[in-house]
Amino acid sequence: MALTVLVYQRTSSPLLSALTFAIGYLPWLLGGPLLAALADRLPRHRVLIATDAGRAVLLAGMAIPGIPLPVMLALLFLVSLGSPPFESARSALMADVLDGDRYAVASSLTNITLQLAQVVGFVLAGALVAALNPSAALLIDAATFAVSALWLWKGLQPRPAPASESGEERRTLLQDTADGLRLIRRSTRLLAIVGLLWTATLFTYAAEGVAAPWVDELGKGATALGVLLAANPLGVTLGGLVIARLVPPARREPLVVPLVVLSLVPVLLAGAVGLVLGPGSLPFGLVVGLLFLSGIGAAWLIPLNVSFVQAVPSAFRGRAFGVAVTGLYGVQGLGALGAGLAAEGVSPSGAVALSGALGLVAVVPMLVAFHRTRGSVAAAAPGEGPSES
């Protein structure tokens, strides 16, 4: 957020602002599956600690006053390279520790915690950027990664690498990555889940890429930008709490279809109302409320994640997660870039409306495929035909 504000202040370009936002996700597309395979080759607790420590150092470098903008963006790219191995190791390790409904509840609580952290982080970052400067916000960010690395080092029980436990012969990183791709490609169930995940995410979160120019169109400042970005995670938090605590496990997966629709309709409305009323006329509170409602719908990610885990054998979870999450973050970056490009030709509101409309059309075949494969299980190792029932 600090860099997005900084770039927009210097250039007044929605596209360059969106590019800054997208850089944090693009490494997933460039090397995500390859880096994520490290979660199956190395002890997962070591992967978590090493990536957080490295990101703390890089972010501290970004906080140096007067550092040229291209250098900051390059460092941001390097920071983002730590995400694929970290997220894959974290997801796979949690699935190793917990099973059944314990994993489903833990997954919901983890997602809720993440969303709450984003709510607090966006609001706090907006206040810090407005009161101090982007460098101060980046230095605080570096400190959070250092605390995380220390916490993981103290709190995680060491476990051997999954490959050494399973007795598999040593393979190259590219072979491990290819295994994850083949596992998903050969299963209609996993293809349906991953296709829905990527398509819905592509259009639901595209508005984040034009958040800075959109807030400017609404006549607000950096603090309002933090509130705008926090609205969706707050909705996801409350939606996740409802799913985790009030909805029985057997009824969670059927909620995916209506929740996906709910996540996209408010995005369309937020942009369309802005186009009708014109720049500066759309009430800021209405925009925040619609994005909050979209966030409630975006809680579809929780039951979808559980369905994915249930379909993947333990020894391949790191690789399979790597492929799925690579696409997840990759499409977020592409969605941000697409919205930024659209905002150059129309307006931020127009770009948001377009994202919602296209999303509702594109997600229909994915929802149909997901519904048709419900109840099937794909648990075959790569090299074998998927065993679906």
Characterise the protein shown here.
By secondary structure, the protein is mainly alpha-helical. It has a single domain (2-160, 173-372), classed as MFS general substrate transporter like domains (Growth Hormone, Chain: A). It contains 19 helices and no strands. The protein has helices at residues 2-11, 14-23, 26-36, 38-41, 44-62, 69-80, 83-97, 100-131, 134-155, 162-166, 173-185, 188-204, 211-217, 222-246, 256-277, 284-297, 301-310, 317-345, 348-372. Helix 7 (83-97) crosses helix 18 (317-345). The radius of gyration is 20 Å and the shape is globular. GO terms for molecular function: transmembrane transporter activity. It is a multi-pass membrane protein. Keywords: Cell membrane, Membrane, Transmembrane, Transmembrane helix. Its main location: membrane. It is found in: Cell membrane.
